[in-house]
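Sequence only, no structure available. Ideas?
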Amino acid sequence: MPFGRIDGDAMKQLTLPLILDSSRPIIRIEKFYNVHAMLDTGAVIPVWVDDEQILKNIGGVVIAYNQPFGGFGGETRGTLYRIPLFQLGELDIP
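Reply:
I predicted one. Tokens follow.
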């Protein structure tokens, strides 16, 4: 799946391998403990639904507990983490 970013005046294209037996755009992020992730290019907040220990293992720090989030068909609450660096293919997201 192509995914781009602006690098100066040029767009850089990344190709991310989709997990073919999934009905949604799911990829495996090898640099991030081989987790599977669904790409939602319209998401404002990245949502983690796996074991919180993985976030802690990569240096994740709790910012807030019981934080309200909207946009999931209503309101839900969760723990807000900050992680030092997220790598999606060649794209580094601090």
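Residues 52-57 form the longest helix (6 residues).
Hope that gets you unstuck.
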